[in-house]
Design goal:
Order of helices and strands: EHEHEHEHEHEHHHHH
Helix content: 40-55%
Pfam families: GerE, Response_reg
CATH superfamily of the largest domain: Response regulator
Distance between the termini: 34 Å
Structural class: alpha/beta
Number of strands: 6
Domain Response regulatory: 2-122
Number of domains: 2
InterPro entries: CheY-like_superfamily, NreC/VraR/RcsB-like_REC, Sig_transdc_resp-reg_C-effctor, Sig_transdc_resp-reg_receiver, Tscrpt_reg_LuxR_C, WalR-like
Keywords: DNA-binding, Phosphoprotein, Transcription, Transcription regulation
CATH class of the largest domain: Alpha Beta
Oligomer: single chain
Shape: globular
Protein name: DNA-binding response regulator, NarL/FixJ family, contains REC and HTH domains
Largest sheet: 6 strands, parallel
CATH topology of the largest domain: Rossmann fold
Length: 213
């Protein structure tokens, strides 16, 4: 796997690069701003970009903007965004730009090497990985949506889907059978109005509905 890192903190940038190297993942470029990210992606065509939300010059959303532009230029380019704080609108905006290969994690997750590397590989493979803190905050928002019709267990399953877990991983987490999870997932799709399909994108559409709820 070939990765581009965009992070203005030298310490974190080099730390992530070393962590990935220990897992056999090559960093082909490590840059400190959005323009550098765009140039690096154009030059290297990486398998994944790991991007900080806030970078120079204003330290607001330059990284996110650059990541979205990269995905506009190269549709399907996997992007894993790192943020210091939970910023819900950024997670929703990033996911809304494409159906696969996106992730949003708090920077503190980098300290958990296994969790971070799992997210890197999952997103690079076209999956999603949304930080559970983001999901927790979204769950307490009160806005009418089809998600309101879900049972507490179905919301729990959808939250785990948002983290990128497979049905089997969800079953293991909740200590239930695979069949029970499949039933919950089917109910979720039905209540959200997602028509039966063999496409994995239906899971991502369900996650988008959840994040926008």
């Amino acid at each position: 796997m070939r990765v581009v890192i965009a992070e203005d903190s030298v310490l974190l940038r080099e730390g992530v690069q070393r962590l990935l190297a220990d897992e056999g993942i090559e960093t082909v470029a490590a840059v400190e701003n959005g323009d550098g990210l765009l140039d690096a992606v154009t030059e290297h065509k990486p398998d994944l970009c790991v991007v900080d939300v806030r970078m120079p010059p204003t330290f607001t959303d330059e990284g996110l903007r650059a990541a979205i532009e990269c995905r506009r230029r190269y549709p399907g380019l996997p992007v894993l965004v790192l943020s210091q704080y939970v910023e819900e609108r950024y997670a929703v905006e990033l996911l809304a730009g494409g159906a696969s290969g996106v992730g949003y994690l708090l920077k503190e997750r980098v300290a958990d090497v296994k969790e971070f590397v799992d997210a890197v590989r999952r997103v690079a493979d076209g999956g999603t990985s949304i930080d559970h803190e983001v999901i927790t905050q979204l769950m307490v928002r009160s806005k009418k949506s089809p998600v309101d019709s879900l049972t507490p267990r179905e919301r729990e399953v959808l939250g785990l889907m948002a983290q990128g877990l497979s049905n089997t991983a969800i079953a293991n987490t909740l200590v239930v059978s695979d069949g029970a999870v499949e039933k919950h997932v089917g109910n979720i799709f039905a209540k959200l109005g997602l028509e039966p399909s063999n496409s994995e994108h239906r899971r991502v559409r369900a996650v988008l509905a959840y994040l926008d709820s």
